[in-house]
Amino acid sequence: MVTIIRTDSLEAGYHGTVVLTQINMHVSKGRMLGLLGRNGCGKTTLFRCLNGLLRPMKGKVYLADQDISNLKPNEIANLAALVPQGARTVFPLYVLDMILLGEGCHLKAWESPTAESEEKARKVAADIGIEHLLGKQFDRLSGGEQQLVLIARALMQSAPILLLDEPTSHLDFTNQHMVMNLIRNLVFTKGVTTVITAHDPNIVLQYCSDVMMIKDGKILSAGPVADILTDDNLKLLYGDGITMEQTPSCQVVVPAK
Amino acid sequence: MIRISGTESSTAINHSKRLWPILSVTLLIFIVFFFLSLNIGKIHVTFADMITIFLHKMNLGQGFTADITAQKQIVFWNVRLPRSILACTVGAALSVAGAVMQTLYRNPLASPDIIGVTQAANLGAGLAIFFFSGSTLVVEGFSFCFGVMALLLTFAIVSRMPGSSVTALVLIGVIISALFQAGLTLLLYMSDPYSDMLRITYWLMGAFNAANWKNVATVLPLVCIGIFFLILFSWRLNIMGQTDEEIKALGVNLSRWRFIYILFVALIVSVSTAAVGNIAWVGLIIPHIARSIIGSNQKRVVPYAAVLGAFFLLLIDTIVRNIPTGEVPISVITSFVAAPFLGWLIFSKQKRGEW
Which residues contact B252 (CB under 8 A, 6 or more apart)? Predict the structure, then answer.
């Protein structure tokens, strides 16, 4: 298995306060890693380190074996694409134009997308089933549709790594599973490596191949979902108020009675 | 090219195709109006007169026919033509600057004034009048230097800040504006109310009536350079309109590019202000009109704002210089026209659920 994301004793934080310590992570190509942890545990901080939005205090981040502290922003964007939680623009673009922004990391400052880029954008949109939205204004879409557009924009970067920050947080139940299915399909069909942060352990349980639990800025446990996402580990992470139950079709994480 | 059926998706295609017809129609109206505006005024100069004078100036004509007086020649060549060119140049500069600033600051109420360049340029002009009772050239030179100084000051502060959020940039702009504004108020307070104070106040009102070829020769090339680069980098502005995290994640060096855009904005705003003083509202209102006509894609907004701004300010200046009771400061008219328009724009946007 080829390691595509690697961190070496990473330490990070804000304004001199250390939030994360001793993070050594390895993600193999084509895996889907879910980051779990309570609010303020440092998972967002780790996420921001992975694509260079935050400079680590100590340690290194390697994407595809390249130390990202030596890379320019567009070179990082060529390796890892970010899907933010949501986008709010003051002057809303049409969906097609919004998706085309992902092409920016392949263009020189004075260049703009060509007809070829536009064709690529249409293909990406068709792949994830949003070609009917291309002519709409981004701010007129529902939360789920916006999330899909942001995923399409990230796919335009053609990066081997996709980072999704709480991809389901603003979505209703149907859309949550639609988006997660889509992401899983991308992992299977395109071989992209994905890292997602999630509040709901059920999302990780159902869709991810690997999980990493973070508690108080340190890795609590990490590995394949089947091994790591156990009742005991969940209690260590979230406290005693949570338990796993077996339903006829699958396992679910529920509040303890 | 893949065509997708259905009415919804075809709007985007139509929208991008709409730019050229709209741009060319606007350009055509603008050019026609440009010549029309040279025609009207207290002294009537016909198109035939213009052509004759123009050919003569280019050393191509045979000399004047009897009905072209020296007065007509001066009015057309030395007064109206440079004035109209300057009005168009400044209109384009302020509008492009406004469009870029609104995007960079992600704020529909941003305008070129927001970085403090205008206020600094004002103080520079005031100082030149106060200490050197300056000639036009000294006033312009001081004004330009102060505008650039405000810009450098902004960046000196911004580059020392750990984060560079938009809010911090806005606040620094407010601080710098306030400092230069205070300096100007102090200067006005100290100056002789019967001479310098009048001159400074009059300069602050902004006017094109002092326009001459010398102004045009300094303002036009610098503004053209600034607008050229801002149009060249206009697609990337779409990325700059996203949140800071997204800009970085999309592969753009945020602080470097913010600097580059603001540098060109400061250049065109300070040379414009230095030449003609304060002109209110143009930089705020024209980008909104441009966007409401051709959408928010900056690749279209920036060039279209340039044409629309040039047209708008020429129109207003033509009105100003033809008011029968005598010329009024141009900002009075731009405010009278633009402020109600912005009110209407906000109203209509709210009705459609935007803003």
Answer: A73, A74, A104, B236, B239, B240
- B-interface mutation test, from A54, A76, A97, most B Cβ less than 10 A away: A97
**Which member of A76, A97, A118 has the closest CB to residue B297?**
A97
Q: What is the Cα B32 distance to its own chain's centre?
A: 21
Q: Look up the pTM and report it.
A: 0.89
3-class SS of residue A99:
helix
Buried b vs exposed e over A165-203: b needs ≥16 C-beta within 10 Å?
bbbbeebeeebbebbbebbbebbeeeebbbbbbbeebbb
Buried b (16+ CB within 10 A) or exposed e, B326-342: eeebbbebbeebbeeeb
Residues B149-174: tens digit of each pLDDT: 887 787 778 767 765 677 777 888 88
Mutation pick from A14, A17, A91 vs chain B, by most beta carbons of B within 10 Å, is A91
* pLDDT surpassing 60 at residue B5: no
Q: How far is A254 from chain B (nearest CA, A)?
A: 34
- For A81, counting Cβ atoms within 10 Å of its Cβ (0-12 exposed, 13-18 middle, 19+ buried), the class is buried
CA distance A59 to A46: 12
pLDDT beyond 50 at B228: yes
Cβ contact, residue pair A87, B242, below 8 Å: yes
The greatest distance separating any two alpha carbons of chain B, rounded to the nearest whole angstrom, comes to 72
Task: Test B246 with A74 for CB contact under 8 angstroms.
Answer: no
Residue A85 tokens, joined: 């939680």
Give me the pLDDT at residue B17, please: 54
By the CB < 8 Å criterion, does B354 face chain A?
A: yes
Q: Is B71 on the interface with A (CB under 8 A)?
A: no
Decide if B12 and A135 are in contact by the 8 Å CB cutoff. yes
Q: Say yes or no to pLDDT of A1 above 80.
A: no
Interface of B with A in 95-154 (CB under 8 A): 102-103, 106-108
User: β-strands A218-224, A210-215: how paired?
Assistant: antiparallel
Residue with tokens 């006033």: B139
Its ipTM equals 0.91
Measured in angstroms, the CA of B351 and the nearest CA of chain A are apart by 14
DSSP codes joined into one string, B196-258: HHHHHHHHHH--STT--HHHHHHHHHHHHHHHHHHHHTHHHHHHHTS-HHHHHHTT--HHHHH
Q: Does B4 touch chain A (CB under 8 A)?
A: yes
B33-351 is classed in which CATH architecture? Orthogonal Bundle (1.10)
**CB contacts < 8 A (A, B):** 119
- Please report the pLDDT score of residue B61 as a whole number: 61
**Within an 8 Å CB–CB cutoff, is residue B18 touching chain A?**
no
Give mean pLDDT, residues B19-25: 86
Minimal CA separation from A46 to chain B, in Å: 14
Domains for chain A: give ranges and CATH numbers: 3-84+160-255 (3.40.50.300)
Q: Residues B82, B85, B90, CA angle at the centre, nearest 5°?
A: 120
Across all residues in chain A, what is the average pLDDT?
A: 91
pLDDT in tens, A156-196: 999 999 999 988 887 888 888 988 999 999 898 888 999 99
pLDDT tens digits for range B279-324: 878 999 999 999 988 989 999 999 999 999 999 999 999 998 888 8
